[in-house]
Amino acid sequence: MPELPEVETVCRALEKCLPNEQIVEVKVRNPQLRNLIDEEELQSACKDKTILSLRRRAKYIIAELSDSTALLLHLGMTGKFRVVDQGEAFKKHEHVCFELKSGKSWRYEDPRRFGIVKHVALPAPGATPDCLDHMGPEPLLYSFTGSYLKQFTKAKTKPIKNMIMDNNCVVGVGNIYASEALFRSGISPLKPAGTLSLPACKKLVMKIQEVLKEAIEAGGTTISDFATPDGNEGYFFRELAVYGRNDEPCLTCGTHITKKTLAGRSTFYCTKCQKG
Ligand SMILES: [Zn+2]
């Protein structure tokens, strides 16, 4: 499932090829994504509009159009974008296609169809759509600090891992990155959130930012191919210390990595290194 670094990478890649493109036609080949697309409505909302910019909020991509509206996009479990020439044959699961005035075709592919392609109003140019208002801070922005995390988790008994994966606390920290950041912080994923000290909160915030930045940087190396027909959409090989490594030796101490299910999600950690 694409997590924040992948979405950021995809967004940056789209940002290189879509701004100033004008949408001339919308083709919906299968309207049933997580939302049900009304082709006529989407067509009339987007036709002749210019794509001004692309930005990310949580795991959503906001493609702002020239009339203070936007396409709100989510990759779900298996969503991918590609920008190809209009003559290019459609792939089986390319469900939505925006034909551009330049002769390019911006396509959304999604075999499992958990993604979202939706037209929304923006409260003002450059703003975030109202439907994303309730979300917590972006993990890579200044508003996400150790003091914020300490304040937010105060008196909370939920395990810290569940807390940092909760969009109300901070957005876009998925299972893999939560596990890796907790390992690097030496904090057990099971620790009740409210019992973390301020220094521990500071360290955890730093490590969350570190793993996300590393992942974005690694993803960034694949961007240049993005606009080609068989382009890479921004996924990358990840070097993981704990995630998916149950029963393998810890890279630091050699103890076998433990796997537990926490809030329905696989959780991997080292019982010796993560005692904090
Ligand atoms: Zn260890």
Describe the structure.
The chain is an alpha+beta fold and 276 residues long. The chain has two domains: 4-132, Alpha-Beta Barrel (N-terminal domain of MutM-like DNA repair proteins), CATH 3.20.190.10; 146-269, Helicase, Ruva Protein, domain 3. It is 25% helix and 22% strand. A four-stranded antiparallel beta sheet has the order 1-6-7-5. The model is unreliable at 220-237 (pLDDT under 50). The structure holds zinc ion. Residues 250, 252-253, 255, 270, 272-273 line the site of zinc ion. Zinc ion is lined by residues 250, 252-253, 255, 270, 272-273.
Could you give a quick summary of the protein structure above?
By secondary structure, this protein is α+β, with helices and mostly antiparallel strands. Helix content is 25%, strand content 22%.
List keywords for this structure.
276 residues; alpha+beta; N-terminal domain of MutM-like DNA repair proteins; Helicase, Ruva Protein, domain 3; four-stranded antiparallel sheet; 25% helix; binds zinc ion
Which stretches are low in confidence, meaning pLDDT under 50 for 5 or more residues running? 220-237
For the sheet with most strands, the description reads: 4 strands, antiparallel
Task: Kindly provide the radius of gyration, computed on alpha-carbon positions and rounded to a whole number of angstroms.
Answer: 20 Å
What is the number of beta strands? Answer: 10
Topology summary:
Layout: H1 4-17, E1 23-28, H2 39-46, E2 51-57, E3 60-65, E4 69-74, E5 80-85, E6 94-100, E7 104-109, E8 116-121, H3 146-153, H4 160-164, H5 175-185, H6 198-220, E9 258-262, E10 265-269
Antiparallel strand pairs: 1-6, 2-3, 3-4, 4-8, 5-7, 6-7, 9-10
Zinc ion is lined by residues 250, 252-253, 255, 270, 272-273.
